[in-house]
Amino acid sequence: YSSGNHAQAVALAGRLLGVDATIVMPENAPQVKLDATRGYGAEVVEYDPAETVREELGRRLAEERGLTLVPPYDHPDVVAGQGTVGDELFRQVEDLDALLVCCGGGGLLSGCALAARHHAPDCTVIGVEPDAGDDATRSFHSGELQTVEDPDTVADGARTPYLGDVTFPLVLEHADDMVTVSDAALVRAMHRLWERMKIVVEPTGALGAAALLDGAVPGRNRRIGVVVSGGNVDLERATDLFAEYGGASARSQ
Fold first, then answer.
1. DSSP H helix total and E strand total for the chain
2. Which residue of 37, 79, 151, 235 is 20 to 30 Å from 28, comparing CA positions?
3. pTM for the whole structure
4. Burial degree of 103 (CB within 10 A; 0-12, 13-18, 19+)
5. Which of 187, 199, 198, 252 is nearest to 227 (CA)?
6. In this structure, is the dihedral angle defined by the CA atoms of residues 178, 171, 122 and 192, taken in order, positive or negative?
7. Are residues 60 and 119 in the same domain?
C-alpha cells in the first residue's frame, strides 16, 4: 500500500524481477502516480481513504492471495533502503549543521537520521510535515503516538495517519526536532524549486525546502542539507496549485 512513490518502486521492482505486484492505493492519489504504477505492470486496488484503513486492506489481500506484504515505511529493510538517501548525501558533502527531511510515515526520516548519526553525529536532523498532517510532530513532542485521520493537505505523500511501530521509536531516538509548514508555504517552495532550480518536485518532496524558505528552520550562516524526494505530480495539478496559492508571491521570495 502506498500513495504512489513506494507503489511505483515496488511495481518496477516486480517487473524487473518477473514478480506480480498488487498495490493498494487511495482513489484520490494523483493520476500520474496511478498511471505510472499501472504502467510498470502492477495491479492497482483503489480504496476510499475516508472509509477504509489501507493497512487492514493490504493485510487482508496478502492473506487471501498468499502475497508478501511490502510496507511503505514500517519495516527495518525499508528504513534501511530509504536511509541510503542520507548515506549518499553525507558521503558526497562535508559535515552539515542540519538536515531537513520530509516526513509521512517516518521511513525516510528514520533512515536519514540513522545515516546522520553514523556520518555526522553533531548534525541536527529535523523532520518536516504539513500543518494538517502533523501526527509525527505531535508524537515527537509528546513522546506518545498521535494519529490524524485523512488530513486535508496538498502533500499527498504525507497523509499517513501515524508513525509505525518501527519508525516511531527511531524518530524519537535519532531525530532532533519536528516542524510543520502550511500548504501555502509548501506550494511556494515547490514553485521556487521548479522555476529557479529546474527541479520538478511534488508537494510532499518540497516539505524540507519549505521549512527552510519559510523560516520554520533558520538557515543563515548554517550549512543545511535538504532532502527533496518525489517528483510525481500531474502538470495540470501543479499549474492549479501555483495559480491557487499565487505564482507571483512564489517569485518574490
1. 11, 6
2. 79
3. 0.90
4. buried
5. 199
6. negative
7. no
